[in-house]
């Protein structure tokens, strides 16, 4: 009986560990005036994604992921906020990590939502497979 109980407990622990999910996919970007480095990232649909931003610039920047089918047009305004799937901002000289669940497969636009930054060309692409 003890042996069966041990086998059942081990089976439950194994199943529990498998259900904990995998570690997030970490995508990093160095942000500055007025670019993302790199400017293209690829992730798997439905995966947990940790965005690690390092701001080497002199002003605040944002990493804004737009929803499927949305495209940012300059000038970016508060009225465009409904187009956002995920966003993270980072102060000058700072770093920040925030996470989200990757959307469905597709190609998504990344922009900096700080006024004037999209107009200066600060954008990138997230490819979700």
Q: Which CATH C-level class is it?
A: Mainly Beta
State the major sheet: 5 strands, mixed
What string gives the helices and strands in order?
HEEEEEEEEE
Radius of gyration: 19 Å
CATH T-level fold name: Immunoglobulin-like
| Assembly annotation | single chain
Task: Tell me the name of the CATH homologous superfamily.
Answer: Cupredoxins -  blue copper proteins
What is the total number of structural domains?
1
Task: Output mean pLDDT.
Answer: 86
Number of strands: 9
**Secondary-structure-derived class:** mainly beta
Q: What are the low-pLDDT stretches, counting only 5+ consecutive residues below 50?
A: 1-19
Residues in β-strands, percent: 35-45%
Shape: globular
Largest sheet, spatial ordering of strands: 3-9-8-5-6
> How much helix, percentage-wise, in residues?
10-25%
Describe this structure in words.
The protein is mostly beta strands. The protein has a single domain, classed as Sandwich (Immunoglobulin-like), CATH 2.60.40. 14% of the residues lie in helices and 43% in strands. It is built from one helix and nine strands. The strands form two sheets. It has a five-stranded mixed β-sheet, with no helix packed on it. Strands 2-1-4-7 form a four-stranded mixed β-sheet, with no helix packed on it. Mean pLDDT is 86; it is low at 1-19.
């Amino acid at each position: 009986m003890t042996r069966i109980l041990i086998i059942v407990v081990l089976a439950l622990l194994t199943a529990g560990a498998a259900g904990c999910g995998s570690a997030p996919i970490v995508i990093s970007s160095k942000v500055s005036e007025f670019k993302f480095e790199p400017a293209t990232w690829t992730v798997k649909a439905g995966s947990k994604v940790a965005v690690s931003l390092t701001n080497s610039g002199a002003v605040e920047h944002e990493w804004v992921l737009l929803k499927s089918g949305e495209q940012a047009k300059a000038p970016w305004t508060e009225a465009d906020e409904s187009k956002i799937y995920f966003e993270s901002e980072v102060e000058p000289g700072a770093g920040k990590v925030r996470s989200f669940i990757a959307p469905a497969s597709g190609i998504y636009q990344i922009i900096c939502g700080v006024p004037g930054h999209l107009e200066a060309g600060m954008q990138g692409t997230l490819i979700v497979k």
